[in-house]
Amino acid sequence: MTVDASAPPGNRMTVPPPRDTLGRRGSVFLSLHPRLRLTLLLSAPLFWLGLVYIAALAALLITALWTVDTFTGQISQTWTLDNIITVLTGSLYQTVTVRTVGVALLVTIVDIVIALPIAFYMAKVASPRAQRILVIAVLMPLWASYLVKAYAWRSVLSQDGILQWLLAPFGGETPGYGLPATIITLSYLWLPYVILPIYAGLERVPDSLLEASGDLGGKTGATLRLVVLPMIWPAIIAGSIFSFALSLGDYITVNIVGGANQLLGNLVYTNVGAANNLPLAAAIALIPIVIIFGYLAVVRRTGALENL
Amino acid sequence: MRLSRAARGILAIMTGLVLAAIYLPLFVVFVNSFSTSTSLSWPPPGFTLEWWSRAFRSEGALDALVTSVQVASVATLISLVLGTLISLALQRYTFFGREAVSLLVILPIALPGIITGIALNNAFRTILGIQLSILTVIVAHATFCIVTVFNNVIARLRRQGTNFEEASADLGAGLWTTFRLVTFPQLRSALFAGGLLAFALSFDEIIVTTFTAGAGVKTLPLWILDNLFRPNQAPIVNVIAVVLVLVSIIPIYIAQRIAGAEKIVR
């Protein structure tokens, strides 16, 4: 800096003012108008999401208030609450809703319980090299097709599959097809989506905090409960949004490994396809929509939505 | 907190067990792709390379692969642009309805696919009167891919702050120059990671695709669903799954390398 000050003024490098081009003027104008900048940034994505998604969703919900003409099979636009009342009071819908939410909750719990130790090992114990390999190992199965993985579990769980073959010597046997198989398969499918946010959350916990807790006499259990858990809670919730929401709407896995069981997704699918009753399907679809919105509203305060 | 050797050991064993469980079905798929049994019974009765040679000659599978790559590429491109715009808006500005916008971005992934699927199907066919085609699939996929780009980019923006951009502006760079030379290079690896996830998400999507694909459009998952339960085709599906997993190592490895290199710099 002293060199600059002592140099004769004539030798100082002078920066010419920027040329006054059209682009320059536009740039200056935008710099002076942050609201206009914001509008330009937001207009394209909001146009897309609003037009493509929200309008479609709203139209679907309105359809729930219409009915299907039993003779022509066409949707007739007479306003009625019949579909909604059917879905709210029908025992089939109540049973299936409880079953679906139960499956989704169990899948979420299984995934979190499995994800926590492996994510902790990846983030805090493994060497940087092992860490990189582990992340790849967790990510890779995401690329094997969802269908192939579900079908692989069908093959693993079948009566002459590898699980029976492995367990038979110990007197165990495969659970076969049904709700347990559905829960196993769904947990398997969504596990990477739960591990990754929790791993990212744990990476953000500085090692120095763990050491400080240890230095202050915190045992491992207390440190995990009082230091680590509160910090990674949003990440856990973020992972749970994936496993819960993805399980709530699934109908293909349950078709492949679930035996004769139906989930909400199956009811929607049957009513759109075979039964050709879009209004009723839309009314059934309201159940997971309400549940998800409720769930998001509850977890919004944890800051989980910023950890997805 | 100091983890004892025993605790580290237990964690390592648990990690190993989970990885074993993760790879068991994939291992079964791999072995079955060489099995002479078409019903996937275990242990496999014999060894054959027939499925591998048939898979590489299966026109249906190869066409579906091309379609899937096209759909995923365009959807990823759209979501990269829209995701970056929306994360810049949400991270750098405060405005009325900001929370609603961030909810709007995650909604397509948070709501079950079948709802997105029938909503878009209904909107395309009955409201807009558009024939379902490959374009409708791309539009649908781009909609739920935005969120993966958004998450990666906004996390990066939050971490890096605006100091460099302000310095660039102070030194006389215009908005576009600053974005091109300062903001974009800092976002590059986040864009790569987000784009990779978006591509994977689109490439494997089946439910929304079922409802938005036109009659002649077969993405790879749709083709697999058609052929999964045909005894003579199921082993070919296994071959394709094995190839996809092996090929996927390359982009994931690159993403890891980029992320790792940046960590060292910081």
UniProtKB/TrEMBL annotation, chain A:
Residues 97-297 form the ABC transmembrane type-1 domain. The keyword Flavoprotein does not apply. It is a multi-pass membrane protein. It is found in: Cell membrane. One of its GO terms (cellular component) is plasma membrane. InterPro entries: MetI-like (IPR000515), MetI-like_sf (IPR035906). The chain crosses the membrane at residues 40-66, 101-121, 133-153, 177-202, 223-246, 278-298. Its main location: membrane. Residues 1-20 are annotated as: Disordered. Keywords: Cell membrane, Membrane, Transmembrane, Transmembrane helix, Transport. GO terms for biological process: transmembrane transport. PROSITE patterns: ABC_TM1 (PS50928). Gene3D superfamilies: MetI-like. Belongs to the binding-protein-dependent transport system permease family. CysTW subfamily. This is ABC transporter permease. The lineage of its organism: Bacteria, Bacillati, Actinomycetota, Actinomycetes, Micrococcales.
TrEMBL record, chain B:
GO terms for cellular component: plasma membrane. The keyword Iron does not apply. It is a multi-pass membrane protein. It comes from the Bacteria. The chain crosses the membrane at residues 12-34, 64-88, 100-120, 126-150, 190-215, 235-254. Residues 65-255 form the ABC transmembrane type-1 domain. Pfam families: BPD_transp_1. It is found in: Cell membrane. One of its GO terms (biological process) is transmembrane transport. Belongs to the binding-protein-dependent transport system permease family. CysTW subfamily. This is ABC transporter permease. The lineage of its organism: Bacteria, Bacillati, Actinomycetota, Actinomycetes, Micrococcales.
